[in-house]
């Protein structure tokens, strides 16, 4: 099966499209991390459009159960798994194996789902920002679901936690610019490290080749925990970050309000635009109108399809307010028909663009209306 390439920050819209199609399959993702020669590979499993698993590899049934036991510190996992495997009605079904292990009270569904939620957050966080390639395999049946009735992971909670973690990562900047920062031990300052355990760790792991994500993976830790440990070491001069150039602080960035009820699109839009704009997010019409009145909005990105009031109606409402009559409004939708574009124009939209789209083209379009930048590329024709 061939690989399909995608641009930076485009993976979120690809996942959203698979979800909208109720896709079941294994998504193998390889990402390019800055100038690092090694690709970062992750696996996502979808069942009927829901993410049910995210990790570095796709385990078999026994490996999955053994990893649960290791994380929950159950010494008797192997013998229980062996017994459950013999009794399982379907020896190839992961769900059947987990049902038996839950009945044996080795685990409960809340524990399993919590562990897989945390693992999926890390997997998504580490691949969503980057360019790369993917392939979808529909032949493997990885029948993981959680609880009764069977369900997948909560998409909104996944994206909310990723957004919260991004705020935590931002507190390390500029000392540690990102999770992909590559630390190395400063040889001239190594003798200043009085803690033998810290020095041993840095000599082994801070080699200028591994990123914080790589170090965390090798130690089976959360990269945020690794960054928290490395922060004082970098500040003390024991460790430096390869190729680190502290970015200039952003001041008075234009404000873009993005209105979309999809958590995946919210993350994608924010990541695509946050380098040049302050991005505010609203999930519904009520919150959007409140933010419009409270903030000095330079441009409105408005999803057409929303659960309460559709984007066209919101656009009409905004245009009736005198101070917003000249506000640039870009309608964002998966619909690409001529009639849909005409309806958008009649509602008062400035531009009408369709998903999926590349992050750099979105930036060009927003810049066209916020900064008056001329661009030869129009998303309205894509």
TrEMBL record:
Where 4-aspartylphosphate occurs along the chain?
303
Cross-referenced InterPro entries, in alphabetical order?
Bact_response_regulator, CheY-like_superfamily, PatA-like_N, Sig_transdc_resp-reg_receiver
Pinpoint the Response regulatory domain residues: 255-370
Q: Which UniProt keywords apply?
A: Phosphoprotein
Q: One biological process GO term for this chain?
A: phosphorelay signal transduction system
Tell me the domain of life: Bacteria
Can you say what this protein is called?
Chemotaxis protein CheY
What species is this protein from?
Aliterella atlantica CENA595
């Amino acid at each position: 099966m061939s690989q399909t390439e995608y641009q930076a920050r485009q993976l979120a819209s690809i996942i959203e499209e698979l979800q909208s199609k109720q896709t079941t399959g294994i998504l193998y993702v390889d990402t390019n991390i800055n100038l690092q020669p090694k690709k970062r590979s992750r696996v996502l499993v979808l069942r009927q459009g829901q993410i049910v698993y995210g990790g570095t590899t796709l385990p078999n049934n026994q490996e999955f159960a053994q990893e649960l036991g290791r994380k929950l510190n159950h010494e008797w996992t192997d013998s229980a798994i062996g017994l459950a495997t013999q009794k399982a009605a379907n020896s190839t079904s992961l769900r059947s194996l987990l049902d038996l292990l839950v009945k044996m009270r080795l685990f409960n569904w809340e524990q399993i789902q919590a562990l897989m939620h945390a693992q999926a957050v890390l997997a998504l966080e580490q691949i969503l920002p980057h360019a790369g390639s993917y392939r979808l395999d529909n032949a493997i049946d990885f029948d993981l679901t959680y609880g009764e009735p069977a369900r997948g992971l909560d998409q909104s909670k996944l994206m909310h936690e990723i957004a919260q973690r991004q705020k935590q990562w931002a507190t390390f900047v500029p000392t540690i610019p990102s999770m992909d920062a590559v630390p190395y031990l400063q040889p001239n300052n190594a003798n200043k490290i009085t803690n033998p355990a810290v020095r041993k760790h840095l000599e082994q792991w801070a080699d200028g080749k591994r990123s914080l994500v790589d170090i965390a993976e090798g130690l089976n830790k959360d990269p945020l925990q690794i960054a928290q440990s490395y922060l004082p070491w970098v500040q003390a001069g024991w460790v430096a970050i390869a190729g680190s150039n502290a970015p200039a602080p952003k001041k008075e960035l234009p404000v873009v309000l993005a209105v979309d009820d999809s958590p995946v699109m919210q993350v994608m839009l924010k990541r695509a635009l946050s380098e040049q704009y302050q991005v505010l997010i609203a999930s519904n019409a009520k919150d959007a109108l409140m933010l419009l009145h409270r903030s000095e909005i330079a441009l409105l990105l408005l999803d057409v399809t929303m659960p309460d009031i559709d984007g066209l109606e919101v656009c009409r409402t905004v245009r009736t307010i005198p101070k917003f009559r000249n506000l640039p409004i870009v309608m964002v939708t998966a619909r690409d028909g001529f009639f849909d574009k005409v309806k958008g124009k009649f509602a008062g939209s400035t531009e009408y663009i369709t998903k999926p789209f590349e992050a750099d083209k979105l930036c060009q379009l927003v810049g066209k209306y916020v900064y008056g930048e001329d661009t030869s590329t129009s998303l309205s024709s894509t």
